[in-house]
Fold:
Amino acid sequence: MKNPNEDKQIKELLGKSRLEMPFPDFEHDVMMQIEIEESLRNASSSGIAWSWVFFIAGTVFGILLTLMIPQLEISILGMGAGEMNLLFQVGFCLFVLLHLEKLIGLTNSAEFGNRLKRAVFWR
Structure:
């Protein structure tokens, strides 16, 4: 059986262990910051999905433009359709490769963040 004196000592120890907040609305501010970060994370993942949609649409448009340029019979700055097509293809390839690498990096970091959040908060 427990001694009433022990219960009193335990209550005193628990009372002393109460955490003092630095200012009265500290807990509210922390919770608001968490909500803001969560909403930004959700908006970010939605933005990444739209980025993939527009990246694919732009890539398809670029490929179609690459196929159409040689059929044009125009000359700009002394370059014929063949030189313009080659210049466009080089620029287009650089654009696609650089943006694809960046988009994959953003997607991976967002997925890693979501997996980490699930692992830490939802055990």
Q: What stands out?
A: Residues 48-123 form one domain.
